């Protein structure tokens, strides 16, 4: 079994995989999947995978052209290799942009926006994969943590989904005392135990593509997160209104609306 697992990467690297499956699946397919998920967590790993993809595809294409010259295959092959470069760069540029978003109103002492408090972990500022990495490490170091407090105007949807997965996997309660808007709400609704402080508010809107390269289908991404909201018991009418709000606008429901729709599941906290 291990030999088979090792064989494919080596066969690809040597250009021994058939050229069409190589280009369509290992090169383009895998690269678009990686890009759609915001790139690999480590830039060095992402670059290594990209080099492996391109070198293997280039060798497979050269091998094919030597044995069976085909102009269309040649155009498709070298074009596919060129396409992979901007597809690789787009999520990296998105991460840089995310780090330039102004911090949320609740001040944070760390650049990742993750701060460990005695009874909870605070997430504040723009949501990105740096926040995900820092939160994962904080949870591992403080395994007795039971709650996440959120104070963010949003950020990267794929990073928010990754953080939401941490919330679910660790059975964490989510709480908001200030503002949690846009992608931040994906993290908030990931927990079945959701609470709001007296001045807490949640902001919702539909999605837009902020990258210069269209990598994902916006409607499909909205459908994915609509399903997540519904799975967590939020009323369909509320979900419809949330995602129909234009990306240029934002809807802040009243606490009564949040309670009636099942967005907030614990009693409001008066402070």
Automatic annotation (TrEMBL):
User: Which InterPro entries does this one have?
Assistant: ClpP/crotonase-like_dom_sf
Which stretches are transmembrane?
Answer: 45-62, 71-90
Q: What are the entry keywords?
A: Membrane, Transmembrane, Transmembrane helix
User: What is the protein's name according to its record?
Assistant: Uncharacterized protein
Organism in which the protein naturally occurs: Shimia gijangensis
